[in-house]
Structures are given as C-alpha cells and as structure tokens.
Design a protein that fits this description.
Radius of gyration of chain A: 24 Å
Helix content of chain A: 25-40%
GO cellular component, one term (chain A): cytosol
Number of domains of chain A: 3
Number of strands of chain A: 20
Distance between the termini of chain B: 59 Å
Family (chain A): Belongs to the class-I pyridine nucleotide-disulfide oxidoreductase family.
Number of domains of chain B: 4
Helix content of chain B: 25-40%
Distance between the termini of chain A: 33 Å
Oligomer: heterodimer
Strand order of the largest sheet of chain A: 6-13-7-8-9
CATH superfamily of the largest domain in chain B: FAD/NAD(P)-binding domain
Enzyme class (chain A): oxidoreductase
Keywords (chain A): Disulfide bond, FAD, Flavoprotein, NADP, Oxidoreductase, Redox-active center, Selenocysteine
Cofactor (chain A): FAD
Number of helices of chain A: 12
Number of strands of chain B: 26
CATH topology of the largest domain in chain A: FAD/NAD(P)-binding domain
Largest sheet of chain A: 5 strands, parallel
Structural class of chain A: alpha/beta
C-alpha cells in the first residue's frame, strides 16, 4: 500500500517528465484486491513449503497442558493433544485496543483490518505514534484520503528523535494532519454512519471533537501469550509487557521451551530478526551450530512517505553511552536528482552518521531519510557490521547519481556548526 | 604545529586528517627560502634558511624523535662529494674553494650527538654563493640524522612521522636530493646542479641511521626505489636520467625559476567533474587557480555550459531520462495499484527536455557561482600548451591570451567517437546531442554496446519509442558478461530490438525534418550479408575518445598513449612531465566515472598544495548501469575473478529475486538477480558484487562501503535484512553456482 502511495507520487511527477496525464483518482478496491491476492498467494506458498519440507501443519489454537503437551482446538471445537520434546513459541503480537475509551472496540479498527478493507476507509483518524501509525497515515494520505494522526507524546519512540521529527514534518508537508499532545476520550457513531471522536488536548485540558469515516488504533501491539496457558508449562512472562522472558539462546524459564519473534521480551519486533532467530535456533537444536542471534546493529526502515532507514545507535543513545564529547555526528541535507525536475520539496531529505570522535572514528549509527531508504541502508548495515570507520566510508567512491552516494560525502560535522546543505554535484 | 593542524583541518572541511598539515606551511617556508636563495648573495644567515631549519627541529621534537644533529661546519666532514653526509649540503663544484672559505671540518662524527647539541642559530652561511650560475664557494650546511626513536612508539606512527619529515624536506627545499655517497649517478646529479650553480640539499641515505626506512618511504611517495631521487621546487623529477632529460628539454631550468615566474599556481584545463573538484580544492587551500573550459560544438552544432560531461551530457540528464522512463513503467503499474485513468498516456519529448535543460542550466550557473566564491578564475576558452608552463587560451571569437602556471592539471575528458563511414557526422547524433535534442527522435537506431548505448536505448524505449540497438560483438565489455546478457535480455523482453553482429557501413538522408528519415545500411560481421532499414534517428554510442590530441601536449613532451589517446600517469596522477598532472576519463588504465574524477581531483589538490599523502584508491569502485533494469556492481566480474584467482578458489552465490512491488504489479518473476563472488582462500571474502534490479545504484553503494571494510560471506549471513527490500536478498544467499541448484523464487 506504501508502494501504491509512492506510485501516486510518481503519477503526479510524471507530467514534469513529459507524460501527458491529468490528476487521477485512486480506487481502493482495485488496490486492496491486488494486495490481498498477493498475500493469499504467500499464505498458500508457506503451506506448500511446509508440506514440501514435511512439516505437519495444524490450523488449531494451541495452549499448554503441561511442559511437553499442547492442546489444540480447531474452528469446529475439536480438540487435539500433541506432545513434543522441544516447543517453540512464536505467536507474535496483535494490535492493542485502548481499554478505557468508549466506543473504541465497537467502532475502531486496527492494522489487522485495514489491509483487508474492501472499501476505502475514507476520512481517517489514526491514533498512535508508532511506526505502524505513521506508515498507515502516510500511505492513506498518499492515496488521497483525508488523514489525521493523533499523538499523545512523541513520534517513533526509540528512534532517533531528530529523524522522527523530520519524518513527521515531511508527512505534514504532504497533507497529513497532526494532532499533538492529544488523547481520544470517546468514539460515537452518528446517525449518518460517521464516527464522532472526542479528544482532550493535554496541554490546555480542553476537549475537542471531529468526525471521521474510520478510526484506526495504532497504539502498540500486545503479545499473544494470554491464551497459551503458559503457567501450566511454567513459562515466565514479563509482568509489564506480558512478553515471554528469554535468554540469549532464546530459551524461556523452561529449558526445552523457546520463544522467538515479537512474543519474546526485549527483541526488536522485526520480521528478518525473527526469521534469523528461528533459523539459528533450529540449527542449535539440531546440533548443527552453536551460533546465537546477534541483536546488535539490526538495520530497519520505516516506510513512511519519505522513507527512514537506520542502523546502529540513535544520536541520543550514542551520546548516552559514550558522552557527548566523544561522539561526532556528520550530516547533510541533500536533494535527490529526481526531485529537481519533478519540483518536489527536499527539505527533509537528510542523512546523519553518528561516529566516535576518536580516530579512526568508528561508525556507531547511520540514519537516512529519503527515497529508497531501505535499499540504501542495507549495504551500509553490512559496513557497520564490518566495523566501518568514518574514514573508510569517506574513501568509498560514490555511485553517481544516487542518493546513497551522499552517505560517502558527509563532510560536515554537527559540531562545526557549518551549513550541512549539499549544493552542487 | 598545532596551529597549522587546525588551519589545514579547516581547509579540509573539518575532517582533520593528520596528513593535511605541516607541509602546506612548510611549502610556503620553502618558497621564501628558495626566493632568498635566488636573490641573496653572500647573506651570512638568511632568515629563510633558519626558518626551514627551525621547522625541521620543531617537527622532530614534536614527534619525540631524536633531534636532528645539526653540526657546525667544524664538525663537518670535508666537502668532498663522496663523503658528504649532509643534509643541506650545498652542491658546488668548487668544494675546494669552500674549503678555503671555511675552516676544514673534521671527519663526520658517527655517533649521534645528544639533543643538547642542537644549534639552530649556529647554522653557517649555507646560502653563500647561491646565485644561479655563479659558482661561489660554499660550505656544507648542516646534517641530520633521521632515525626511528627507541621503544614505545608503533612503527606505523614512526613511519607516518618519517613521511612527514621527508615531505617537509621536499617542500622546504628548492632542490632536494636523496642520494648515496658512493653512487656514481648521484655524483653526476650533484655535478649537474653545481654546474648550474644551484644550491641543493642532500640527504645521503647510506650515512644516516635509518636510510633504509627513508628509501622505503620515498618509494611510497614517489614510486621510485632508487637513488638519486630528485625534487625541484617540490616537483618530483625522478632519477638521474629523468633529471638530465629535463635539463636538456629546458624543463629543469623552468622549474628552478618557478616561484615568481608564473601568474597562477595551478591551471586546470577542463571544467568537468575532476577539473572543477581539483581547482576548487586548490583554491580552498589558498592557491591562485585558473580553470579553462571550452566546449567544441558537435558536428550537429550542440554545445553546453560549465560542468563537463556528467552534468551536461552524461550522468545527470541520462538519469533524469531514465527516471522519465521509470515513471512510464510506474504509470502502467499504478493501475494495478488502483490509480484510475482510462486514456493512453502519451509522452511529450519537448516537455521533458525543457525540464531537464532547466535543471542543467541551474547546475551550470551553480558551478560558475561556486568558482567565483572560491576566487577561481574561470575562462571560457580553449587551452593549448605552447611551451613549458605556458598555455594559449583561445575564446569563441578567436582571441588569444597566454597564461602561465607552476602546475597544470589536464582534465579535458572525452567526447563520443564517430564511425568513420559515409554520412556519420552529417546525419548521426551522439549522446552529446541527444539530451538537448529539440524534437523527439522517433524511431531510433542506437549503434554500440557500451553502457551509454544500453542506457540511451533503454530510456528511449521506455518513453515509448521504437528502438533498435546494433551491437558489433560483446555487450558491456569489461562488465560481468552474465549480468550484461541479463540486462539486454530484460530490454529485449520490454520491446528493445537487438541486431547482433552487425556494423553500419553507410547512413543516407532520405528526408530532412525534425526528425528526418535516414537509411542505414549495415553489414554482418560474420558474412557478406547486408541489411537496410529506415530510422528517424541514428545515435552513435560506440565509445569515447580522449581530448588529448589538440592541446599542445607534444610541445611540452607529455606522453600520450598513441592508440588510446589516454595519458599514462603514476599512482599520484602525475604525467611524465613532473609539473603536469591529469585526472578523470583521460587517464590510462583508470575508471571513467565522475565520482572517481572528483575524488582524484580533490586528493591531487591536497597532495599538491597541502602536503597530503592520500592517493586516490581505484580499487573496489562501485558503479551502476542505469538500463531499464538497473545493474549495480562493485569489485570483480566473474570472468575477471576467475582470471585472477582461478575458478577452483572461488565460490559464487546467486539467486533470482522478485521485488515485492513487482508482485502486485504483475511484473516478471525470476528476472532480478543477485550474485556475489567470494574468495574461498581468503575467508570467503567478497571480491565481486552484482545486482540486477530496481534501485540497483542505491543498493550497491552501501555494499561497496562494506567491501572497503573487507566484507566476508559470513558477515553477510550474520547481517539482518531490511524487510521488505531488494537489498536484503544478499543477507540470505545460500545457493552456490557450483551446486547447480535451482534459484528460481517462490515464497517470501
């Protein structure tokens, strides 16, 4: 759906590049069908793969009976008892609904529903500041929908805050509305079917109201641990997050029960980390290797309208760990070549590399805001894995003309106070 | 020293490289020194010489080295050539007269004297008789012992320090000779300089404790291991023969006169990526710099502004036209993603050209502004050497002006070749014309198999034109051939026609117009078969020729490869004529890429004017071919890897991949392709990286940085992918080519 929104941007760029095109409307149903067909084909692919590899697949809801036994209930209510030597819990998380807001559950939806909507959500209020909230709001705006994001405190908590604010700044420039420092207090359905949302402005204490077609909760995800009867197996969870406590080997409090992915405490909620953790765990269980998962320097990308890719430490975290005087930040505002002809605003296209001050200036973190941030970040994540220093990155020859080459040309340090705007080639 | 550090760090944009300092100031001291040497006769202790001296002492002290052992003349060995252990030995044929003028010094003390014996002020009148051509007696000056200090210092630090010291000597002396006391060639050189009446400083490597180290570091700096190793006015002359040659050609005399004689410190010929980078950097370092840039119009009359190929007729417009073509594809995709429009979308060439040319115009302007800000003199004239250090600049009106400079950088770049068949220059266009063509080219024949041919053919087809590419032999010569074939096969599937193994023999105009109609006759390379076809436009992309033939290089003796027209340089971008350097596409055996030219130009300026030692690194340079399906690569092609490392020592991992965006759009699966080549006997180090897919350029860049850091297969495996991207495919490569396993894609 992010790609659909990007294509919308390209459709708008196209006339600048000589394509004779009037502004075009977007049809949600066409997109949703295409996306859903692809997802279904993936579902099918996974089932085929399991079959190919002779993995038994049960479409049942599981819970522990004891430390080696699982009881599964099918849709029809039929129970199956299964036992195994090793058990891996990988039940993931599901979007959270607010508990004390009137109408939240009845009238609101979550990302679990959004991607399967058959009709356009129309004017939408997205509540939350997570990357899910910003990504959804971003592509909804990009598809031409009137979209508002309601944020209680800060966007993208845990990410570099300078980058986060640039992300939201760009979204605002593209037409996403932001309601900062606000929390919803109730949702009501009006006679015409619209949803009336009442919220409180935390700074002024005043109440305000607005009507929307859709309210999307993106306030976080809760781990799927409650229905597992973990206590029967003796598996411990965190009292605050409900996530399963694990050690570096992904082992829970019960030595033959493991947990990986979003359900495990302290793990990044990212698909590739879950995949790799799963693979490595299997290899250890089969005695093929003793490698444990390295959760450091995991690269990730937020697919907001202007994509944000990062790997390593945020500036705040680097300063916290090493002290401000030991951290050197190189940065640049750049303009992607493709933006020039399309007359797009590039005010938020920004790169920052967080390094140790002491030569050889080891790179601690890289933050890239711009088109194709995911593709750009992946290779540099490897560089950081290889222990890249600032000097090594500078010695890398750029690929011209790309956005990624700007990373190899970061000359201005934040400390110098010089203007970091890239001019010229 | 500290102050200098800071200043040079500023000049380098705050990067604070330790290499940047010292020599810049040492150079200016050297300048004063040389001037004094040239102008003052019989001055007992010229200030300049003392400064140079002090600088050395201070430098050595700072580095916690044994201080140099400046000895008074009394301690000196007799001024006979063979036994000189002197630094700052004033080479005079009349050493005997020197002996008369000064008390004969005692034999050389072999044991190093203590730091306390440093006598800065006591340096004798070593500049005596330094007037050119007038042999006046002169005593030996001073001597130094350059040695590594004792324990407690890493050898690399010590080495760096030694480099600095040597650079200081080179920068700080008008003539600096590294020699050995017993070497007959060294003796000839010393004779030469004394016959010229030129004072020079000599370091006898066999008589200093660390001569071997000095020799090694010298060979790093100059690529020359042998002595004598001669520098004149900071320019590396070479050895004995080269110096004598320079003497015969008059170059040596020129160099000796250098300081005051020239209007500019540096003249750069060619205002492209490399030339501008070099000129601006030199200007930032406080030098007086001129850039000559002149675009000779194409046979079709096209010309353009400042900035060179990349900006005007290369990377920038081609990437923008590539983007126009990608947007065409995006429009097709967009319907699948729910964007609704019924009509067929047409492309308007004029709109695109106008937008692109507007952008280029703003870049041209930006360059001129930037040169002005940095006080670089920009002259829109054609530059041509007329004699050593002197250039003739001819402007559009034919007015001639002459300029002189101490150093020159050739950055004239390349221009497209023509076929040399009837009708080629009259009717065909090249990439120099295409990007500003005022009308849509229509049905186009692209001749050539270079990346220029594939890129141009690709985007022309992408905006809806009928395109045929005529290829004589291999596609993308020098690139990985498996990848090259995949690039072409994607193009073929998307409507580009390929005519393999044909060459045009004649182009004939059937109709004038914008575009007109051209008949092309082509002949098979394998038999007598000829074919004929009518096109609106014929675009030649058969290669590029270096602009080195008509700039008077023969007048000053700069070597040019007769066949390629390229200029051979050493690894410091220096030509065979020591004060002439070259960067960019005209370098022999180097890469023709904008970022390389920029890097080389900048680093060259820093070496010339800031005493930096950093050389341009031409290894593992990434690049991307912006064909309809982009191809990014870094390191070796599979062919080259096999040639260098032998097939059995390599492991090639590869896979097809299907970008998520392509799935919903219903675009081809098993087309995008990723391949890495690893050296099994070097820790599975990645020596070749190849990716064919959307945004290949963006993907490749970071991996190139990782390869700079010694990327191995294990590190790829240990790195988490970014989901969902194309780049993540490299973190999950499992199938080796040698296994022969199926690499077609299925699941997520």
């Amino acid at each position: 759906m992010h790609q659909a929104a990007l294509l919308g941007g390209m459709v708008r760029d196209a006339p600048h590049y000589g394509w004779a095109l009037q502004p075009v409307p977007h049809n949600w149903t066409t997109m949703a069908e295409a996306v859903q067909n692809h997802v279904k084909s993936l579902n099918w692919g996974h089932r085929v793969q399991l079959q190919d590899r002779k993995v038994m697949y049960f479409n049942i809801k599981a819970s522990f009976v004891d430390a080696h036994t699982i009881c599964g209930v099918s849709k029809g209510g039929k129970e199956t008892l299964l036992s195994a030597e090793h058990i891996v819990i990988a039940t993931g998380g599901r979007p959270r609904y607010p508990t004390h807001i009137e109408g939240a559950l009845e009238y609101g939806i979550t990302s679990d529903d959004l991607f399967w909507l058959k009709e356009s959500p129309g004017k939408t209020l997205v509540v939350g500041a997570s990357y899910v909230a910003l990504e959804c709001a971003g592509f909804l705006t990009g598809l031409g929908l009137d979209t508002t994001v309601m944020i209680r405190s800060i966007p993208l908590r845990g990410f570099d805050q300078q980058m986060s604010s640039l992300v939201t700044e760009y979204m605002a420039s593209q037409g996403t509305r932001f309601l900062r420092g606000c929390t919803p207090s109730r949702v009501r359905r009006l006679p015409d079917g619209q949803l009336q949302v009442t919220w409180e402005d935390l700074s002024s204490g005043k109440e305000d109201m607005g009507t929307f077609n859709t309210v999307l909760w993106a306030i976080g995800r809760i781990p799927e641990t409650r229905s597992l009867n973990l206590e029967k197996a003796g598996v411990h969870t965190s009292p605050t997050s409900q996530k399963i406590l694990v050690d570096a080997q992904e082992t829970t409090s019960v030595p033959h029960i493991y947990a990986i992915g979003d359900v495990a405490e302290g793990r990044p909620e990212l698909t590739p980390t879950a995949i790799m953790a799963g693979k490595l765990l299997a290899q250890r269980l089969c005695g093929q290797s003793s490698d444990v998962m390295d959760y450091d320097n995991v690269p990730t990308t937020v697919f907001t309208p202007l994509e944000y890719g990062c790997v390593g430490l945020s500036e705040e975290e680097a300063v916290a760990r090493h002290g401000e005087e030991h951290v050197e930040v190189y940065h640049a505002y750049y303009k992607p070549l493709e933006f020039t002809v399309a007359e797009r605003d590039a005010s938020q296209c920004y790169i920052k590399m967080v390094c140790l001050q002491k030569p050889p200036q080891l790179v601690l973190g890289l933050h890239f805001l711009g088109p194709n941030a995911g593709e750009v970040t992946q290779g540099f994540a490897l560089g950081i894995k290889c222990g890249a220093s600032y000097a090594q990155v500078m010695r890398t020859v750029g690929i011209h003309p790309t956005c990624a080459e700007e990373v190899t040309k970061l000359r201005i340090s934040k400390r110098s106070g010089l203007d970091p705007t890239v001019t010229g080639c | 020293m500290r102050v200098r550090d800071d200043r040079s760090a500023q000049g380098r944009g705050g990067s604070g490289s330790p290499r940047a300092q010292v020599h810049g100031t040492a150079g200016s001291q050297g300048r004063t020194c040389a001037a004094a040497a040239g102008g003052v006769t019989g001055e007992p202790t010229p200030i300049a010489s003392r400064e140079t001296h002090c600088h050395l002492v201070a430098g050595l002290r700072n580095a916690r080295w044994d201080p140099p052992q400046w000895t008074s003349p009394k301690q000196q060995n007799g001024p006979t050539r063979g036994s000189a252990t002197l630094l700052g030995y004033t080479a005079k044929a009349g050493s005997d007269t020197a002996a008369l003028a000064q008390p004969p010094p005692p034999p050389p003390p072999r044991a190093p004297t203590s730091p306390g014996s440093v006598k800065v002020g006591a340096v004798p009148n070593r500049r005596l008789g330094s007037v050119r051509g007038v042999p006046v007696s002169s005593p030996p000056g001073r001597r130094a012992r350059l040695s590594y200090p004792g324990t407690g210092r890493s050898s690399s630090e010590a080495r760096e320090e030694l480099r600095r010291r040597l650079m200081g000597l080179i920068e700080g002396n008008r003539v600096m000779i590294f020699s050995k006391s017993y070497c007959p060639h060294s003796a000839r050189i010393k004779d030469l300089f004394s016959s010229l009446g030129v004072e020079c400083n000599i370091l006898e490597l066999d008589q200093v404790d660390d001569g071997a180290n000095v020799q090694e570091v010298l060979s790093e700096i100059t690529n020359q291991r042998t002595v004598p190793n001669i520098f004149v006015n900071k320019v590396h002359m070479g050895g004995c023969d080269r110096t004598f040659q320079a003497h015969q050609s008059g170059l040596l005399q020129k160099l000796l006169q250098e300081d005051s004689a020239y209007e500019y410190d540096l003249i750069v010929i060619g205002g492209g990526s490399g030339g501008l980078a070099c000129a601006q950097e030199a200007a930032i370092l406080g030098k007086k710099v001129m850039v000559l840039d002149f675009v000779v119009p194409t046979p079709q009359g096209t010309s353009w502004g400042l900035g060179g190929t990349c900006v005007n007729v290369g990377c920038v417009p081609k990437k923008l036209m590539h983007q126009a073509a990608l947007l065409g594809q995006a429009l097709k995709d967009s319907r699948k993603f729910g964007w609704e429009y019924s009509h067929q979308v047409k492309h308007n060439w004029e709109t695109m050209i106008e937008a692109i040319q507007n952008h280029i115009g703003s870049l041209n302007w930006g360059y001129r502004l930037s040169l002005r800000e940095k006080a670089v003199t920009y002259v829109n004239s054609y530059g041509e050497f007329v004699e050593h250090h002197k250039i003739k600049a001819t402007n559009r009106k034919g007015q001639e002006t002459y300029y002189t400079a101490g150093k020159f950088v050739l950055a004239t770049g390349q221009r497209p070749r023509y076929l040399g068949i009837p009708g080629d220059k009259e009717y065909c266009i090249t990439s120099d014309d295409l990007f500003s063509l005022p009308y849509c080219p229509g049905k186009t024949l692209v001749v050539g198999a270079s990346y220029v041919a594939l890129e141009c053919g690709g985007f022309l087809a992408g905006i809806g034109l009928d395109v045929t590419i005529m290829v004589r032999s291999v596609l993308l010569r020098g690139f990985d051939q498996e990848m090259a074939e995949k690039v072409a096969s994607y193009m073929e599937q998307h409507g580009v026609k390929f005519l393999r193994k044909f060459v045009p023999v004649m182009v004939q105009q059937l109709e004038k117009g914008s575009p007109g109609k051209l008949k092309v006759v082509a002949k098979s390379t394998e038999g007598p078969e000829t074919i004929e076809e009518i096109y609106n436009t014929v675009l030649l992309a058969i290669g590029r020729a270096s602009c080195t033939r008509r700039i008077g290089l023969e007048k000053i003796g700069v070597k040019v490869n007769e066949k390629s027209g390229k200029i051979p340089v050493n690894d410091a971008e220096q030509t065979n004529v020591p004060y002439v350097y070259a960067v960019g596409d005209i370098l022999e055996g180097k890469l023709e890429l904008t970022p390389i030219a920029i890097q080389a130009g900048k680093l060259l300026a820093r070496r010339l004017f800031a005493g930096s030692l950093e050389k341009c690194d031409y290894v593992n340079v990434p690049t991307t071919v912006f064909a309809p399906l982009e191809y990014g690569c870094c390191g070796l092609s599979e062919e080259k890897a096999i040639e260098v490392h032998k097939k059995e020592n390599l492991e090639v991992y590869h896979t097809f991949f299907w970008p998520l965006e392509w799935t919903v759009a219903g675009r081809d699966n098993n087309t995008c392709y990723a391949k890495i080549i690893c050296n099994k006997f070097d820790n599975d180090r990645v020596i070749g990286f190849h990716v064919l897919g959307p945004n290949a350029g963006e993907i490749t860049q970071g991996f190139a940085a990782a390869m700079k850091c010694g990327l191995t297969k294990q590190q790829l495996d240990d790195t988490i992918g970014i989901h969902p991207t194309c780049g993540e495919v490299f973190t999950t490569l499992e199938i080796t080519k040698s296994s022969g396993l199926d690499i077609t894609q299925k699941g997520c």
